[in-house]
Design brief:
The protein is α+β, with helices and mostly antiparallel strands and about 70 residues long. Helix content is about 20%, strand content about 50%.
Amino acid sequence: MHAQGKVQSEALLTISEEGNVTDIKIVGDNPSMNKEMERVIKIMSKNKWTPALFDGKPIKSKFRLPINMIVEN
């Protein structure tokens, strides 16, 4: 039997001026969800991301990705 309810995790990461993802940190109460989020973010970070711009120039920025799931039987 699986647990029911809301599961929340949040990925915190940095995107460099070049579009590289660094400093990945996953927070949340469910260790399984956190581990899966980290696995997926690492796969996603193999590709370059589009960096934030300031005055038309790429800059280093922080990115927050919250994930909420409702688990039902």
